[in-house]
Design brief:
The complex is a heterodimer of chains A (307) and B (217). Chain A is an alpha/beta fold and 307 residues long. Chain A contains 13 helices and 9 strands. The N terminus of chain A is likely disordered. Chain B is built from 8 helices and no strands. The chains are: A alpha/beta (307), B mainly alpha (217).
Chain lengths: 307, 217
């Protein structure tokens, strides 16, 4: 059943955005250029492009690399970004994000997104608390069950935390098309705010059932591996941009790939990961009008498949 | 882990090549000049491999494995790979088995002839040639050098050389080195490092020679 936004939710989201603009005029100016989409369960607006941390932020204790990650985060927030996503599975990424957030003075725009990833339900809360300390945040905005690992045990914990105000949203994740049948079952049976799946111009399986189901169930959708861990951008850089790229204001293949994803009406936020400031700026610029219509999206997919 | 067949090696790579080699660089800078001691112990082992006072070799190897377990795997590698603590435990077990081999009378001796020569060559490769492949052939900075007694790969290859040179097959001491060859080879292959084949090749040579030794004692 599709969940409609209430007038009250919309007004609440508008008021929150206005407040943020008064507090952070520069951030608000940047956000004005970044397209957003509402989280269906609350109406809160979320920029269509976020920041992943798989591999890129796992730099250990290297002080130079940590500073470099912090600068990527600075550029991300300056360009209007909000959602940063991580997981206990990602090595030192959580600590590196915490380091960056502290260095940046804990930007209020942050939409802190993490996961619980442990086989034991009893140890879920301890892992979440460890993750929270690494980030240095008072609470997470969104926690997801990573790759459905022990979801039957973790989801009740996340629901209880949300009810207690220790968490704002809950969700589940998968990647690269794994366990989609079970994923759908959880989507149908559980009160989720978010799902996270793999979707890109070549991996489009979720278009058939998962994305329509998310719209029906009123769930926000996060997209991981938009570039197939860089494989797509690396492959496409040998080819010049087609003429239609100008029609959607794309200056790079990365922007074409991102616009393809975020133009899908069910998608709430794509989370490309990067170690480069120019790339994070380029990614955020993709969250802008015009987005490709259905016909151009089909053309993009067909074109990339042929290359 | 469900649907395990859908996973590829790249799904298990948690870090970028840049981070991996920077870790080596920072480690080398932190522990310098321990390299001089490692090199000295390596050359003592090499000399012992051509002589008869063999029991000093597993003792030196035990020190090397214990150091790599603590100083590299547990203290450094664990910061970018959550599996490193398990690797460190396996290296510590190997160190304990090596020290037991060194201390118990009659547990370790060398086999003169072809096995001693090939084992000695494999050890010399690990001590002298393997560390130079990165800086001289691949073009990595000298600061990222991997050395016997300092980092896992040359330590493991050197150990395999010693086990090839041993009087009898020591399968109990080969398990961890062979597993590490598979893990390291897979990691380097996933990172598209041109030297990824060294560890699997060393494992193959050591396994084949040890099997031969066991089959025709």
């Amino acid at each position: 059943m599709r969940q409609e936004l209430s007038r009250r939710q919309l007004l609440s989201a508008f008021a929150a955005a206005s407040g943020a603009a008064l507090l952070h005029p520069l951030a608000a100016a940047a956000q004005a250029r970044v397209l957003t989409r509402p989280i269906p369960s609350s109406g809160e607006a979320l920029p269509l492009v976020g920041l992943g941390s798989w591999i890129t932020f796992n730099v250990g204790n290297d002080p130079v690399a940590r500073d470099s990650c912090a600068e990527v985060m600075r550029a991300f927030f300056a360009a209007g970004g909000r959602m940063i996503d991580s997981s206990p599975m990602y090595g030192s990424s959580q600590e590196v994000i915490g380091y960056g957030l502290k260095k940046l003075g804990m930007p209020e725009a942050l939409f802190a997104t993490d996961k619980v990833w442990i086989g034991s339900g009893a140890r879920g809360r301890a892992q979440i608390e460890a993750s929270r300390r690494f980030w240095g945040v008072p609470r997470f905005d969104l926690l997801q069950v990573h790759n459905l690992l022990a979801w039957q045990e973790h989801l009740p914990t996340l629901i209880a935390m949300k009810q207690a105000g220790q968490l704002r949203y809950i969700g589940i994740t998968t990647s690269e098309g794994r366990r989609h049948r079970e994923f759908e079952q959880v989507m149908r049976s559980q009160p989720l705010d978010f799902i996270q799946v793999t979707y890109n111009v070549l991996d489009r399986e979720v278009e058939e059932r998962i994305l329509p189901l998310a719209r029906d169930r009123g769930m926000a959708v996060i997209i991981n591996r938009p570039f197939r861990e860089g494989e797509l951008t690396k492959k496409l850089q040998r080819h010049s941009l087609p003429g239609w790229a100008k029609d959607i204001d794309c200056a790079s293949w990365a922007q074409v790939l991102l616009k393809f994803i975020i133009a899908h009406p069910a998608v709430t936020c794509a989370i490309p990961a990067t170690t480069r400031i120019d790339h994070v700026k380029e990614n955020l610029r993709a969250a802008s009008d015009p987005l490709p219509d259905a016909a151009l999206r089909a053309r993009i997919a067909a074109h990339v498949e042929k290359l | 882990m469900s649907e395990w067949w859908t996973y590829s090696l790249s799904d298990f790579l948690l870090f970028s090549p840049r981070t991996y080699y920077r870790l080596l660089e920072l480690y080398n800078a932190d522990v310098w000049p321990a390299h001089a001691l490692a090199l000295t112990l390596g050359f003592i082992s090499l000399a012992a491999l051509s002589g008869v006072r063999a029991r000093v070799i597993p003792a030196i190897l035990a020190v090397a494995w214990a150091w790599v377990a603590w100083a590299y795997l547990l203290t450094r590698y664990d910061t970018i790979n959550w599996a490193a603590k398990y690797f460190a435990a396996a290296f510590a077990v190997e160190a304990v088995m090596l020290i037991a081999t060194a201390l118990l009378p009659g547990r370790f001796a060398l086999r003169a002839g072809m096995f001693q020569s090939v084992g000695g060559l494999l050890f010399a490769f690990a001590l002298i040639a393997q560390p130079l492949i990165g800086p001289l052939i691949i073009g990595r900075p000298w600061a990222q050098i991997e050395m016997f007694g300092m980092t896992p790969d040359p330590t493991v290859v050197g150990t395999l050389g010693v086990l090839v040179a041993a009087q009898r097959p020591h399968w109990e001491l080969m398990v961890v080195p062979l597993l590490w060859c598979a893990i390291s080879g897979a990691t380097l292959w996933t990172m598209q490092s041109p030297d990824w084949m060294i560890m699997p090749a060393a494992a193959l040579v050591a396994f084949a020679l040890t099997a031969w030794k066991a089959w025709a004692p």
